[in-house]
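Standup notes, protein team

Yesterday: finished cleaning the Sphingobacterium daejeonense set.
Today: Aminopeptidase P family protein structure.
Blockers: none.

Input for Aminopeptidase P family protein:
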Amino acid sequence: MKYIEKLASIRQEMKEKGVDAYIIPSSDPHISEYLPDRYKCIAWTSGFNGSAGTLAITQDFAGLWTDSRYFVQAAEQLEGTGFELVKLQVQGRAEYATWLAKNLEKGNTVAFDGNLASVAVAQAVKNELEPLGINVNGHLDLLDPIWEGRPDLPKDKAYLIDEKTTGQSTTDKIAAIKNILKDKRTDTHFVSSLDDLAWILNIRGNDVNCNPVVLGFLMIQGDKNTLFIQDGKLSAADIATLNAAGVEVADYSKAFDVVKGISTERILLDPKKTCFAIYDSVPEGVKIVEDMNPSTALKAIKNEVEIEHTRNAMVKDGVALTKFFKWVEENVSSGNLSEISIAEKLQELRASSEGFVDISFDTIAGYREHGALPHYKATDSSNSTLKPEGLLLVDSGGQYTDGTTDITRVISLGNITAEEKKDYTIVLKGTIEGSQAVFPKGTKGYSIDAITRRPIWETFRNYGHGTGHGVGFFLNVHEGPQVFNMAAIDIPVEEGMITSIEPGLYREGEYGIRIENLVLSKAVESNQFGEFMEFENLTICYIATDLVDKSLLDNKHVEWLNNYNAWVFEKLSPKLDENEKAWLKEKTKAI
């Protein structure tokens, strides 16, 4: 069925159900960023396969609301589908609800599937529309009746990882959560988000591409804890281990019924990580405490075991990247390299490392103008052949049993312009400024964002995405609650957090530049003025110097770059053969 035919079928379903507008979020019952195939509803409906967006459909208009990361991609993918791109002014805001408020009338009905909308999204829609007399139905799935061959839920096995890897037992993690619940005078907590569940229970799986998670829900209630998971996903031994940790195992499909039948005074639900269908299943009389999952904050603070494992994973990742960039440089003139083939080669090199499980997200290998698309993924139709000229941007990462990596580098393939060098050097200054930041305890992410952007703003340049995101431990590559962006989010940067620093510059139709490292927040000084923190660089991969215009750097930037590259050589050279070592020695030579 073509996209235009799917849109017509949805509109027919709307007519039959008395619906004037239908909303399709990019989500699943766990409010995941990356989705199992069964819940890739926006991609199936419209052809847009970005990780963020919302469709809103009326009888005379169908739009995709998405942010600046996807403007070019969305415009291309929506062509001929019947859907139009609507550019979000503020990332994450429910601007489609405002549009519906202006274009619908009192008595009209708006519907969405409550399994796919978070409580926060549902409330935003309701708050915008219901005061205008517009009806909102949050329990209507119009896709399932017309989705022929819709994928089933994944059936891959899940497994437990031990305390030697995680540094903390499931029993201790649940106890820490219950202490927080006690402070909130709440004895019941329902966890929907897959990375929270994975962290709490030290469980991993393969239900979502690139994210080592398993579909499930977790109820923490008094002395009883229940994992709802598909039958057959866990071995008898793993079930016994969970039972010993005070966790019962029940069928995945029973979660909603259990929520409907709870008899407790108060239940804690995270409105950003709980679907509306679960929220609306809570019986009347039970007070819903809307708050962030306690595990989200606990998970963000990596313990010493996780940190040491992550440092080890970074060495393996750095070795793979060194071999990769050497291979690209030596083979680009053959005319046989493409964006897809180099992504495959990088995955192959990572896979040769001990403990490699998967890539941590789809590799972004953007040659020339494709580098200007922050979330580009090469397809058969877009796949560019590399030539010995221009810029190549590679944003990639790995999932290892001892950590998660995420790194972006830009290299020259030849014949670089003065403007490209200037842009590269300006972005590098931003990366260095952010990496060198020293800041008081309690500093929020927007301050780190501003520190990183300052040398870019000074040249009247900017970029449309955030400066950094949290990263999990052998978990999701995008992890909260901390974020480095311009929004006034009241989450402090705390000791033990792992976060990316990734400023960029993008010239549409020409090239893109982004230089990304992961950093660890650490305490550095305590005196009469308070406690201060700094960052430890975790990512170990050379930063190209042949693209640097040294005249644009201060001495502190040159010193940082030379010290960083020297450290990269020191850490990686023992793992390389003589040819690779000589190549890296040249790449890390001081400027």
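Follow-up from PR in the comments: The mean pLDDT is 95.
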